[in-house]
Write a structure and sequence with these properties.
Structural class: alpha+beta
Order of helices and strands: HHHHHHHHEEEEEHEHHE
Distance between the termini: 54 Å
Shape: elongated
Number of strands: 7
Largest sheet: 4 strands, mixed
Strand content: 5-15%
Helix content: 40-55%
Radius of gyration: 22 Å
Number of helices: 11
Length: 222
């Protein structure tokens, strides 16, 4: 069926649907319309703030171009908004759409225990520096083109040109961070220790821990 939807009626095997050829083509068209409608609704739901910012007509013009892209056709419905943010004309709209998509990715990411100030405080100093850490599975980082113009309600905290999106428990947090914290996250992706991050920049490391951006590679012995 998906091959027929992508390639058109000529790719529809006669045995796939019952009835005459005309009835089969009507069924194919109805199925295609249902899928296209579901994709449009999914985009509207994924980028509600962006749609409010740019307006209904502009949003749907961008959405149509996105849905017509060959790369988009191959995407499952849950990923249909991937790459759409880059299609908006202004930095403000691109930033907001990218933040919304990062929010959705964080929301759907795997659950894992985040490193917290409380768990750190319960560790002996010699144990603390040896804790191996990685970015939390729900951690997302967005490079903002116009950070001060980003509109989000409730507004994000922090300062910097990067937007950190985290979900350490049930709530998603948005925090702007600077170059130092961004560099520390890059170190953590290669697996490092908390002591190494603290040596590099203790204040930035504290911010990452406070926002739930890190997880212990092995569960802490409490």
């Amino acid at each position: 069926m998906m091959r027929a939807l992508r390639g058109g009626p000529s790719c529809l095997p006669s045995e796939l649907l019952s009835g005459t050829r005309r009835a089969q083509l009507r069924a194919l068209k109805a199925h295609a319309n249902t899928i296209n409608h579901a994709r449009r609704i999914a985009l509207e739901d994924s980028f509600k703030r962006t749609r409010e910012l740019v307006g209904h007509d502009t949003f749907h013009e961008v959405a149509e171009r996105h849905l017509e892209s060959p790369a988009t056709v191959e995407l499952p419905l849950r990923s249909i908004g991937c790459g759409m943010a880059a299609r908006f004309a202004t930095p403000r709209a691109r930033d907001l759409a990218t933040a919304e998509w990062a929010w959705l990715e964080a929301h759907g990411a795997a659950r894992a225990p985040a490193l917290t100030l409380r768990t750190i405080g319960d560790q002996r100093p010699e144990r603390l520096v040896d804790i191996a850490v990685q970015p939390h599975p729900a951690c997302r980082l967005v490079a903002l083109e116009d950070a001060d113009a980003l509109l989000w309600n409730p507004s994000q905290t922090g300062a910097g040109d990067m937007l950190l999106v985290t979900r350490p428990a049930n709530d998603i947090r948005l925090t702007r961070i600077g170059r130092s914290a961004t560099r520390l996250l890059a170190l953590a992706r290669k697996r490092t220790t908390l002591g190494r991050l603290l040596d590099e920049d203790a204040a930035a490391t504290t911010t990452l821990v406070q926002q739930g951006a890190l997880r212990p590679v092995l569960e802490l012995v409490l």
